[in-house]
Task: structure prediction
Amino acid sequence: MKVYVQSVNFNAYKSLIEFIEKKLNGLEKFYDKIVDSEVYLKVQQTSEKENKTVEIKVNVPGNDIVVKKQSKTFEEGTMLAV
Result:
């Protein structure tokens, strides 16, 4: 599955992108008709510790599945969303 990662207003590390791709490719065990995925990483400018937002859009035939999670790290947000 092709995974498109967009980081808004910052440059994501290669290790973070590889982590996200690995976790999303694991979804194919549960549903094999996934076309691709789009991931948006954003940092909210707040004083809260949970200021990192992960939004995942999974494109499947006929529908799109969108999950948005806010957490302390992008890795944690990805795990919660998947």
Summary: Helices lie at 14-25, 74-81. The first strand starts at residue 2 and ends at 7.
